[in-house]
Amino acid sequence: MPEFIRHPLIKADAVEQRLYQLDLAGKALDTSTLVVLPTGLGKTIISLLVMASRLEKYDGKVMVLSPTKPLVEQHASFFRNVFNLPEEEVLTFTGSISPDKRAELWEQGKVIVSTPQVIENDILTKRISLEDVTHITFDEAHRAVGNYAYTYIAEKYFETAKNPLCLGITASPGSSDEKIAEVCQSLHIESVAVKTESDKDVLPYIHKKEIEWKRINLPDEMREIKNLLNKVLEDRYKKLTELGYPIYNQRYVSKKDLLGLQAKLQGQLRGGIPDPSVYSAISLLAEIMKVNHAVEITETQGLESLRMYMERLDNEAYSKSGSKASKRLAEDIYIRQASRRLKDCDIEHPKLEYVKRIVLEELEGKPHSRVIVFANYRDTAEMITKELSEVEGIRPVRFVGQASKYKDKGLTQKQQVEIIEQFKAGDYNVLVATSVAEEGLDIPSTDLVLFYEPIPSEIRSIQRKGRTGRKHEGRVVVLVTKGTRDEAYYWSSLSRERKMQSNMKELQAAMPAVKNSSITEEFASDIPGEEQRTLFEYGDNDSKIKIVVDQREIRSSVARTLDRNGMEIIVKTLEVGDYILSDRIAVERKETQDFVSSLIEQKLFEQIANLSRAYEKPVLIIEGDSLFNCRGMNPNAIHGAISSISLDFGVSIFYTRDAEDTASLLMQIAKREQVDEKREVNMHGRKAAAMLPEQQEYVVSSISDIGPKAARNLLQHFGSVENVMKASYEELLEVSNIGPKTAAKIREIVGSEYRK
Fold first, then answer.
1. pTM, two decimal places
2. Could you tell me the CA-to-CA distances from 520 to 32, 61, 106, 186, 502 in Å, in that order?
3. Under DSSP, is residue 399 helix (H, G, I), strand (E, B) or coil?
4. In 345-457, which residue ranges form alpha helices assigned H by DSSP?
């Protein structure tokens, strides 16, 4: 008979007691901890134990953050079932709940389960405070790197909470010391606790997981197509060398190497007038990357996937926005020969037959089995699903992400959840999935996981393998094509997994020693809000620099950087511009890809015209290094657009490297305007040349919570600005889309006595 956890906040006989979970939870209660535990061994239980203890000790709130909405729903359902709390105190926060409703729910909640982006937005917009949050669990903690929302939330949490403690949980934090250290630093982790499948206290709960590697020969016909593609690469490498940009060891060049050269070339475009050869080299490099990808598909995926890819290249080449690189490839003699061979070739990659045979054997031996087939590419997943559906007894379903592209529509989160439920129920017995099934979804344990190809990422490899062997014995099969990059990926993944295990053990042994000496004191000194003051803070809060940020810009990391540096962020839905820095300066921010897309789609000049008409000193920031390498746009067209924006519209143009650089520039301009020039921030800058109806809409929409559409409705209903202002609460309610809250706001602003 199993023993159960006993705690006043956990329902009796709801959670089985496991010593290794109690051990890890005990460590996580001592200090902020990263817990590394294989998939299926109850990381959520450890989070539950820590949360219950913190709630009992400090009351307040506890929070669990998970990367996706389906996983949030899964965790929340579990916590409602096991926590001895009223159901209305265990809440889910996702983007489908309105911001105002979230602010209301926050006050009543004890256990908040949320996606990180929602909490990040609510912190930035001051809807919530983390002051009374006594614990945060960061699920899939390996994501806490770079600009991911976890990083910002952890920073604000340790700044504001009265009793902060966090727990990071993951099955695979990464193999490099740098990656693990970055995760620990981002989450303010002071201790690491690791359990492996070989640990004595874990061993009784481990089910055998058999791993097989099937090595496969590439057929001669496919080698011929590969050789034709390699001839294209040889020609482009030669031309690149002639331009002064040689690539050494061409046979083993990686995508990382090619991206590195691309970044170097793009950097040269920014330093004055570049040599014309730089443009040629960038275009050649684009061709190389496309053909290199085609070679990889041939080696590791199959000819059907290659046909789909070549069709997309062809479509790109002859489309209106097609790049020179894609057009040259479409006309290349070797590409045309490869395309003809593809049409005549009636064989497929032998991996496909292996998949059908392995899956069928599994289902014939165990009719109630569930199988996941992982493929890196959607085209391959489509091909595998089609082939498996023709085999009696196999009921496959394709499972991909939300993004859509040419002839390939993605799945909504609702569709994903429906497919998973059908997979659980047995309507489908084979899930053919891309990386979307590796983490973040409640996919049940399976009897067989089949890799169509190895993957070099140790994190993704571990997550895939963790889909089997949870509740009973499992099996993993990895298909490897001999003499191709499949083998390189196989050895890379294996090496990284071993290195990760070694690093984690070493880190676990080393961190307590560091902690006992001086890490706590050192860490405290890095927490903002103690003795430190940012460069841009002056005096009390009333003199803080204010920056109005458009709601849509919250998705970028610019707003987070502004907040970190002491700016007072005011989030609004702006009709014009992305940032407002004073009564005369508004800023439109464009990443390079967005700039070129807006130019092609003919939206750019309309946005610039609105900006220049609304503000005395409009500013355009172009962010990123790849302006002249986006979508094959002719550099002369880009220079022409920039000239027109500056000379015809009188807009100042600045270039920044990245989001952090953009934030720094915004702060400097805002400081100059608000501190040096003593100007106030005004969301409605001067509209010098606006027509009378625009000016009328402008006045009405200046009222808080009134957007341009609502302003037009009010003016059409009442006939003038004067009549809108005179209208009673009841009369306002008669207008389309004007509810009680908005009507009350209008009357409050119009009718209240002015007091400074």
1. 0.69
2. 11, 24, 31, 15, 25
3. strand
4. 351-365, 378-389, 413-425
Cα gap 646→303, rounded to integer Å: 50
Q: What is the pLDDT of residues 582-594, one digit of tens each?
A: 989 999 999 988 8
pLDDT, greater one: 338 or 633 = 338
Helices 19-30/43-58 angle, 10° precision: 50
Res. 633 pLDDT band, cuts 50 70 90:
low
Q: Is 429 helix (H, G, I), strand (E, B) or coil?
A: coil
Confidence band of 159 (pLDDT split at 50, 70, 90): very high
pLDDT in tens, 15-29: 989 999 999 999 999
* Rounded Cα distance, 171 and 743, in Å: 52
Could you tell me the CA-to-CA distances from 166 to 45, 152, 158 in Å, in that order? 15, 14, 9
Distance CA 628, CA 207 (A): 54
Q: How far is CA 289 from CA 283, 284, 545, 558, 609, in A?
A: 10, 9, 45, 30, 38
| 465-493 per-position pLDDT tens digit | 776 656 667 788 999 998 888 888 878 77
What amino acid is encoded at 598 in this protein? S
Give the Cα separation of 416 and 399 in Å (integer): 7
Nearest Cα residue to 473 out of 210, 202, 205, 204: 210
- In whole angstroms, give the CA distance from residue 684 to residue 524: 42
- Asked if 92 and 64 touch (Cβ cutoff 8 Å), the reply is no
Q: How far apart are CA 225 and CA 299, in angstroms?
A: 10
Other Cβ atoms within 10 Å of 573 Cβ, number: 10
| CA distance readout (Å), 313 to 254, 256, 279, 290 | 21, 22, 21, 8
Helix ranges, 584-682 (H): 592-600, 604-614, 635-647, 659-671
> Are 590 and 620 a contacting pair, CB within 8 Å?
yes
First to last CA, the chain: 71
Nearest to residue 208, comparing CAs of 518, 549, 553, 472? 472
Distance CA 68, CA 440 (A): 6
Tokens at residue 151, please? Answer: 């990083």
Q: What is the DSSP letter of 114?
A: E
pLDDT (average), residues 328-351:
88
The secondary element (H helix, E strand) that includes residue 748 is helix 740-751
Give me the half-sphere count of Cα atoms (radius 13 Å) on the Cβ side of residue 151.
15
CA distance 582 to 548: 9
Angle at 585 between CA 579 and CA 589, to 5 degrees: 35
Helix locations, 543-624, DSSP H: 558-564, 592-600, 604-614
Asked if 546 and 567 count as a contact pair (C-beta separation under 8 A), the reply is yes
Angstrom CA distances, 59 to 201, 629, 697, stand at 32, 54, 49
Encode pLDDT of 563-578 as tens digits: 888 898 888 888 889 9
pLDDT at 524: 33
Q: What is the mean pLDDT of residues 220-249?
A: 89
Tokens 């979307």 locate to 436
- In the structure encoding, which two tokens stand for residue 260, read together? 């590195």
* DSSP H or E segment with residue 568: strand 568-572
Alpha-carbon distances of 277 from 268, 285, 331, 488, 640, rounded to whole Å = 11, 12, 22, 34, 21
For residue 735, give the amino acid letter. Answer: V
SS3 content of the chain, % helix, strand, coil (to 5): 55, 15, 35
